[in-house]
Amino acid sequence: MVRIACHVLWAAAARQPPVEEHAVFRAARLANPANRTDMLCSACSFAAHAVRRTVVPAMKAPARSASERRSSVSESLSTACDRQNFPDDLSLLCVDLSGSMVTDKRHCTKKYVDADTLIGQDLPESAMPRVQHIADVQTICNAIVEAGKEIVVSNALGGGGRILDVDFRNLLCVDSQLCDKQLQREEL
């Protein structure tokens, strides 16, 4: 009897349609040069900051029609992932669940960090800033912005609130499940 019930549950689960990935998550995962999903949350956090840096000035321009504002925000997104919207140097750290840096790469989560925040710390060679990290984050940023463009534009224009109140990290990173809410708050 138990065997039959388990078989019936397994068969029912097998017929369930697959859960579809969020478009932003899928784009970031496919664009990830290192093919590691643990690095996507921190890359998305940098992308969301870059989006904010470009969208807010576009929205603060003198009042125009809705279509002009939409066009302005869309155009600003084309430059969101440009080099000047990221820190000068990025490091890739291996951290444990508490967020402390570790050297054992088998039991860690990797995340991108602004190298300026690490000045004065004793870092392993693997955590030294690399130009390639910025290029990798820019690649992921471009994928996130392209997949999330309509989400950003509609939230920047909608709601009647202030553009400064829009949480781009939540929109792009948490809602797409690139980051969970706990990790997202730590990275702010």
Describe the structure.
By secondary structure, the protein is mostly helical. 52% of the residues lie in helices and 6% in strands. It contains seven helices and two strands. The protein has helices at residues 2-15, 23-31, 40-60, 66-77, 131-157, 168-174, 181-187, and strands at residues 90-95, 109-114. The protein has a two-stranded antiparallel sheet with strand order 1-2. Helix 2 (23-31) packs antiparallel against helix 5, helix 3 (40-60) runs antiparallel to helix 6 (168-174) and helix 4 runs antiparallel to helix 5 (131-157). The N and C termini lie far apart (52 Å). Residues 1-19 and 183-188 have low confidence and may be disordered.
Radius of gyration: 20 Å
What amount of the residues lies in strands?
Answer: 5-15%
What can be said about the biggest beta sheet? 2 strands, antiparallel
The chain-level structural class is: mainly alpha
